[in-house]
Design goal:
binds thiamine diphosphate, alpha/beta, 5-stranded parallel beta sheet
Length: about 280
């Protein structure tokens, strides 16, 4: 069981990631606040609890891999990599500038990034290739992939899903950040994909559900997924787009919206309120 201390540590890390996210987005420029903040707890758990990962392990062949298939949420991954010491903090200030290390989507030049993503639908195929190669190498490493619910309309995902089941890949865990809103509105209005859980099960995957903002539930899901043998597992994360930002929760306008000075101040207030609650 997770100790109360560790739980608090991971909740605090998720909050730190959201502060970093806000710092990177800044005032007056566009940034993917919504789909990044829905992932804060999951990335905190993966990078700071679950994965065999660390700044000193980036070349370890047995490191666990995380592929952010919904690459537009890169800023929250950059926050985690920065907190893990993969690159200096100053890089957060230079994000999305031409001479900065951190670009708008994940790139292999960034320490800790395992795959170039951003064109939706490709991360699961890349992860499957990694998982098969690790299995050939008899590595204990696992591959984690994070997809979006809007992203589920990409056909390539379902090719990879069939292939992973066919090859009985069980060192791969996929997450579906089921925040129910995509770029331009509610996912069910933009491109409805009903019965997601049944679809994944039909494609031969073990399907799990977890509250994606609950540290213990995420860990339980990951542990259950790792225990499944002979087939891949997917965890449907019940999340809220823009979680903890009062103006952004469930609001497609902050998928990649600009933060005005006033909204930025509100965002800081919202996070300060969470800080008080974690203590
Ligand atoms: C192949 C492709 N088509 C379109 C886009 C533009 N795009 C970027 S984010 C996005 C919406 C993704 O929605 P979802 O997967 O639900 O992400 P989240 O809401 O979790 O951020 C779209 C359509 C893209 N990046 N790649």
């Amino acid at each position: 069981m997770l100790s109360a201390e560790k739980k608090k540590e991971l909740e605090s890390m998720a909050l730190k990631l959201r502060y970093d996210l806000l710092e990177m987005i800044g005032i007056g420029t566009a940034g993917h606040l919504g789909g990044s903040s829905s992932l804060a707890e999951t990335l905190a758990v993966l990078y700071f609890h679950q994965m065999h990962f660390g700044a000193a392990l980036l070349k370890d062949p047995d490191r666990d891999r995380l592929v952010l298939s919904k690459g537009h949420a890169a800023l929250i991954q950059y926050a985690a990599l920065c907190e893990a010491g993969c690159f200096p903090r100053e890089e957060l200030k230079r994000v999305k500038t031409l001479d900065g290390l951190l670009q708008g989507h994940p790139d292999l030049s960034i320490p800790g990034i395992e795959a170039v993503t951003g064109s939706l639908g490709q991360g699961l195929s890349i992860s499957l290739g990694m998982a098969l190669a690790l299995r050939l190498d008899k590595s204990p490493a696992r591959v984690y992939t994070v997809m979006g619910d809007g992203e589920q309309s990409e056909g390539q995902i379902w090719e990879a899903a069939m292939a992973a089941a066919n090859f009985k890949v069980d060192n791969l865990t996929a997450f579906l950040d089921w925040n129910k809103v995509q770029a331009t509105g509610p996912t069910q209005d933009v491109f409805n994909i009903p019965n997601l859980a049944e679809k994944w099960a039909g494609f031969g995957w073990h399907v799990l559900m977890a509250d994606g903002h609950n540290i213990e539930a995420i860990i339980e899901g990951i542990e259950k997924a790792a225990a499944v043998k002979g087939k891949p597992a997917v965890i449907l994360l019940d999340t809220i787009k823009g979680k903890y930002f009062s103006f952004a929760e469930g609001n497609a306008a902050y998928h990649n919206g600009i933060l005005t000075e006033e909204v930025y101040a509100q965002a800081l207030n919202d996070l300060d309120a969470v800080k008080a609650w974690i203590r």
